[in-house]
Design goal:
Spore Coat Polysaccharide Biosynthesis Protein SpsA, Chain A, about 290 residues, alpha/beta, about 35% helix, three-stranded mixed beta sheet
C-alpha cells in the first residue's frame, strides 16, 4: 500500500513538519503545495517529500484552490504508482496510528472518501454554483475593490447562469474539500479533466469551488457507489463558519472512540483540523491517544 499525501500549506510550517513526521513511513510520500505568498521554507530534513515547483497564490473561495489541488494530483500520479491519494491541509494532524491508517486503506482499496451532499443545502446554496463570480482577495485593497464591487452587483442582479449544455444531466454535489481517493478514481478523474475544459471553465467562476468540483465529478461517475464519508474531522460548532475551531482539550475524549458523531452522522475519522504552531501541547495529548490505536 503506497500512500501519496497531498498537502496544501500557506503558514504554520513548524506544525506542518510535525504532521509529516507523524505519518512518515517508508511507503508514504508527501507532495506539498506552498502558497506563492508564503515565505521560503525548506523540507530537506525529510525523505519522500516533493515540493511542487509550480506555486499558486490561493485566494479563499476561488478556483486557485482547485488548481493547486489538481496540480498536486497530477504531479503525484505521474511521480509513482500510488494506491491511495489523501488530500490534507498543512494544519491537519492524524488521530489514529499509522498502522490503523494503513490497515483501513488496505481493507478498503475500492472505497473513495469524500463528503458529498446533493445541492442545495443550507451551507451550499445554488448561488455558490450558478451566480457568476470573479476570483479576488478577501482583503479589500485598491486591486480587489473593483472586483468585489462587480461581484456584489452580479449577486444583487439575481441573474444566474445554467450548467453548460454538456453537463445538464449532472446533479450538483457539495461538501468538505478534504478527501481520500484510490488510484482507479484518480486515473478516471485526470482523464475526465483532460477532456472536459467546459467543466473546468464553468467552475472557475463559482464560489468556493473546492467544495463542489470533485464532489460533482465523483457523484456523477461510475464510482458513485464507492463513496463514503470524509476521513477528516472538523469542528464548526466552536469556531463557527466560515472558520473551523482549533482543536482543543475538549475534543480529546472524542478521539478516543473509533466512531465519532459529527455533522449529523457517525463516522470513522483518521485526521482532524485545525492546529497551528502553538498547538504542541494539545498534539502531545493527541499522540498519546494515537499510540493506543
Amino acid at each position: 500500500m503506497k500512500i501519496a499525501y497531498l498537502i496544501i500549506a500557506h503558514n504554520n510550517f513548524e506544525h506542518l513538519k510535525r504532521l509529516i513526521r507523524s505519518i512518515q513511513m517508508d511507503n508514504a510520500f508527501f507532495f506539498i503545495h506552498v502558497d506563492q505568498k508564503a515565505p521560503p521554507v525548506s523540507f530537506d530534513e525529510f525523505y519522500h517529500v516533493q515540493v511542487l515547483p509550480k506555486q499558486y497564490s490561493i485566494k479563499w473561495g476561488g478556483f486557485s484552490m482547485v488548481e493547486a489541488t489538481i496540480e498536486l494530483l497530477k504531479y503525484a500520479f505521474h511521480f509513482d504508482d500510488f494506491d491511495r491519494f489523501v488530500l490534507l491541509s498543512g494544519v491537519d494532524y492524524p488521530i489514529k496510528s499509522n498502522a490503523y491508517i494503513e490497515d483501513l486503506f488496505e481493507k478498503n482499496r475500492n472505497i473513495n472518501y469524500i463528503d458529498a451532499h446533493l445541492m442545495p443545502t443550507m451551507d451550499h446554496p445554488f448561488d455558490r454554483l450558478f451566480c457568476y463570480r470573479i476570483e479576488c482577495d478577501r482583503t479589500t485593497n485598491l486591486k480587489s475593490f473593483p472586483i468585489k464591487l462587480v461581484n456584489k452587483l452580479i449577486r444583487g442582479s439575481r441573474i444566474r447562469r445554467p450548467y453548460p449544455q454538456k453537463y445538464q444531466d449532472y446533479k450538483p454535489f457539495a461538501g468538505s474539500q478534504w478527501w481520500s481517493f484510490n488510484d482507479a478514481f484518480v486515473d478516471y478523474l485526470l482523464k475526465f479533466l483532460s477532456s472536459n475544459d467546459e467543466y473546468i471553465t464553468f467552475f472557475q467562476h463559482t464560489f468556493v469551488p473546492d467544495e463542489m468540483f470533485f464532489q460533482t465529478i465523483i457523484m456523477n461517475s461510475p464510482f458513485v457507489r464507492t463513496v463514503r464519508n470524509t476521513l477528516t474531522y472538523v469542528d464548526w460548532e466552536l469556531g463557527g463558519p466560515p472558520y473551523p475551531s482549533l482543536i482543543q482539550k475538549i475534543h480529546m475524549p472524542l478521539f478516543k472512540n473509533d466512531l465519532i458523531y459529527a455533522n449529523h452522522r457517525v463516522s470513522i475519522y483518521l485526521f482532524t483540523r485545525k492546529f497551528n504552531d502553538d498547538s504542541s501541547k494539545i498534539i502531545n495529548e493527541l499522540d498519546k491517544i494515537r499510540a493506543d490505536y
